[in-house]
Amino acid sequence: MTQTDVEALELPGADLEELGPDFYRDPYPVYARLREQGPVVQVRFGPTPVWLVVGYAEGRSALADPRLVKDQGRIARAAAALMGVEALPEPEEQTFGERVLTSHLLSMDPPDHGRLRGLVGKAFTNRKVQARRARVNEVVAELFDAVAGKPEIELLADVAYPLPITVLCELLGVPVGDQAEFTRLANALNFEPPERMREIAGELADLVLTWVELRRREPGDNLLSELVRAHDVDGILSLEELVSMVFQIQSAGFGPTSHLISNGVRALMVHPDQLALLRADRSLIPAAVDEFARFDTTVHLAMLSVAAEPVELGGVLIAENDFVVVATGAGNRDPKYRANPDVLDIRASTAAHLGFGHGIHHCLGTALGKVQAEAVVAALLDRYETVELAVPAGELTHKVFPARLLDALPLRVG
Fold first, then answer.
1. Could you tell me the end-to-end alpha-carbon distance of the chain, in angstroms, rounded to an integer?
2. Structural domain boundaries, residue 265
3. CDD domains in the record, alphabetically (predicted)?
4. DSSP codes joined into one string, 179-220
5. Residue 86 has pLDDT above 70, yes or no
6. How many CA atoms lie within 13 A of 25 on its CB side?
7. What is the mean pLDDT of residues 298-324?
């Protein structure tokens, strides 16, 4: 987005959905312009007015504020009030698949959120994740072996997509043969038109139910077997919640990890001084991965919240039933959080950045995603003396807003 484009925006009050591909490619100038109006500004997503939190301190506060809730019923009532009606029209009865897609942790508040997160949290402890590091390194080696000798690789298709799918399938205990089908359906959810969502949701639910049946017959030392026992034996998890949890772990662990890797490597390619630092000192890789998450946050808008009561934030009074979205990507580029925030600097502090969220919705798989990103960066450095973009950086395109998802990342290697 050019400086002229940014200056032409009517801010605050801009409709972010109208900004188009240039905004998808580089939203940060828009966020900076919004931040000039204050840390909390009103924008629109289509016809809906939303308080967008673009300041770091205010974003961190909002993500931990229990008055900003994600309950879907509350959000529907707020939407009805905004439209001046008593209630929204009764939607068509949801199928099992559609209910699964909307009954996930990111759309839950306590106490259900804590109950469900507690069931899976044990699989993502730092001890458990570190125990998987050797296997992650093996998978990365296998993926790079498969493209050995090629002068050009496509990092997403060749490595960054199959890696987390493989790691998560093994963690859950789902068949390797279902990886391709799951990837197809997960991508379809993001990129197919809305009228296909019911069909795709049904296919996804059916796929996950086959995994559930498999682990009923053949339980093992894996997370899916534990969830099946929680439903079948302990009765603390409904079937809908079980299927939703499995889908969410696969989906949320797949896309964000893939694009943490690709966004980070892209950033290195346009900051050769930082790449040189990593070549000289591999011990900087963990810090570099955190800096990737800060510098170009994959999920740069948090899930929609609604104010359950009036909330004062950043000098703004947010009324009950107002919608709020935290722009984590904007907060990570706030000069009040970090000096020179638009510069990639793997030696600078990334303490308490918002790249993996904050509060009760902090990304459950953060540690596992970071281990995978670290392994890919290390492999690139170890295997290739030169790594560079195979196309000009300006030609790289992003799939959708509000996530930072590259279409592809072609690299010339040697």
1. 33
2. 3-413
3. CYP107-like
4. HHHHHHHHHHHHHS-GGGHHHHHHHHHHHHHHHHHHHHHS--
5. no
6. 10
7. 92
User: Could you tell me if residue 216 is left (phi over 0), alpha (psi between -120 and 50 degrees) or otherwise beta?
Assistant: alpha
CA–CA distance, 405 with 385 (Å, rounded to integer): 27
Domain of residue 178, CATH code: 1.10.630.10
Please tell me the pTM assigned to this model: 0.89
The number of folded domains in the chain is 1
What sign does the dihedral 112-250-295-393 (CA atoms) show? negative
What CA–CA distances, in Å, run from 71 to 67, 188, 194, 303?
11, 25, 22, 11
Confidence of residue 5 (pLDDT cuts 50, 70, 90): very low
Higher pLDDT: 92 or 115? It is 115
Q: Tell me the one-letter amino acid at 333.
A: R
Measure the CA–CA gap between 148 and 145, rounded to whole angstroms: 5
Q: Give the helix, strand, coil percentages of the chain, each rounded to 5.
A: 55, 10, 35
DSSP code string of 124-153: GSHHHHHHTHHHHHHHHHHHHHHTTT-SEE
CA-wise closest residue to 377 among 284, 251, 245: 284
